[in-house]
Amino acid sequence: TTLVGTARPKNILDNIAYVEEPMDEQLLAEVLEVLKPIHNFNFTRGRPEHCDPLLGS
């Protein structure tokens, strides 16, 4: 699930409508290819003692 915030209710209605649109599979494949070098990469942030052992960050 994703929580979105917006200043306009119409934006929420637009987001709901986008779910019904067909996915551009070619574009998705291209984006996944671009992101492949950082797939499953977690960046470390915060203090080490607050690190989530399951995520490693």
> C-alpha Rg, in Å?
17 Å
* Residue fraction in strands: under 5%
**Number of helix segments?**
2
Shape: flat
Number of E-type strands: 0
Mean pLDDT, all residues: 85
In helices, the fraction of residues equals 25-40%
Structural category is mainly alpha
- Poorly predicted segments: none
End-to-end gap: 21 Å
* Helix and strand sequence: HH
Characterize the main sheet: none
Question: What does this entry look like structurally?
Answer:
The chain is 37% helix and 0% strand. The chain has a domain at 24-57. The protein is mainly alpha-helical and 57 residues long. The mean pLDDT is 85. It is flat.
List the helices and strands and how they pair.
Blueprint: H1 9-18, H2 25-35
Please describe the structure with a list of short key phrases separated by commas or semicolons:
57 residues, mainly alpha, 37% helix
